[in-house]
Amino acid sequence: MCKHQPLSCIIPPYMNLKLANNEKFEKKLLAAHVSSFTLDAQIRGRRKAFTRLNPQSKEIVALAALKKPAKKVAVSREVYTAGNKQVQPGTLVRKEGQDVVKDKDVNNVYDAAGYTWDFYYSLFGRNSIDNKGLKLIQTVHYGKKYDNAFWDGQQMIYGDGDGKIFDSFTLDVDIIGHELTHGVVQYETNLVYQDQSGALNESLADIFGSMIKQRVLNQDAASADWLIGENVLRGKQYALRSLKAPGTAYKNHPDLGTDPQPAHMSGYTNDPFDNGGVHLNSGITNHAFYLACTEVGGYSWEKVGKVWYAAMCDKKGVQPTASFLDFKNATLTHADKLFKSENTVSKAIKKAWDSVGVE
Amino acid sequence: MKLKLIEAGKFSGLKKTAEEDLDHLPQELQQHVENIFSASSEQPLKVHAQSAYRDKEKLFIEYNGKALPINAVQPSKQLEALIEKLKSKLHY
User: Which of A230, A252, A271, B18 could form a disulfide with A239 if both were Cys (CB 3.0 to 4.6 A apart)?
Assistant: First the structure.
């Protein structure tokens, strides 16, 4: 691991950061330290490291990237298996361009990551999670009967589910779109995963996950089911969340009871076990999006989806600790900018936010 | 008095729990749990706010109506073993 640059392994990260940010160094020397720091940081997460560099050093990193021959903009996927252990990324099973493999879960996440990449690129010109062509790394079969999927800041991880209540978390394209969108949010507004900003983070992941599914199925706002995880949660009548009717995704489930998500601010909950209710209160903003889409009509991603994407990438208007109201204001600003001539879009969005009590 | 292990915050937003009555367990362990919770502040529970691990589950222990994130607790060997036992019994 330390073969090429032993220095970067010996010098602790905080020291490399100090060297990389030293404005007194000549550009050449500074570039060497920046290179050393960024190489070391690859292990701990490139994005995190980049944000800690000062503008001068950021420029050097950016310039180095510009010198590289321009690569063709294309999706780049790698799918690994953890072999039911808690390891990541695990063993590589399928990479970009390779044929389908025997493992269905591997193929599911490979395809869904492709749909997600295509959704962001063809509709918004976004080249992957970071808009710089980041490789989409996914690990399946994580842990034993692990009933969860998550984004760890660098890659997606999926469990097989317990087989009783949950099936494999690779079965729903909206779940895979959800996890990848957490990555997009991280590179854009980077919403803090707590309270209202955390619920917005969750909500954006659901909204874009749902839109990705709708686009794959070619469904408009009126014909879509607006459900998240209907295959992952076993039982035909159950799903994990509903954007159309939060609180109804599952009712009287023998093990889980009834979906607790609120659809209105009057039901806002502060759950200390869930970072202030990030998976609960997201129902409110999810529902606002659904209402706006159905009011406007057509495909969700054509108008309201475009507005939500612009707001999700608006680092000025939507700060990391943004509230629901901040996000509402950002959507109204962007609706005016994007659809000036169609003031019906702005009106529908305002009406939707008002309907869920974000005023 | 019962000690509850709570697993929360995962993709599904659902909680899993498991609990154990401490009364029949060694006095030393009971005292350790008592000390942990009496020493903790009364501040509202806020954990992992900056974590990049979106949708990752988080573990808490609850005792006498008060809950603490597990990574904020220094468990003894006995408590560690009890938590491991509870992990295997977690259910919705």
Answer: A230
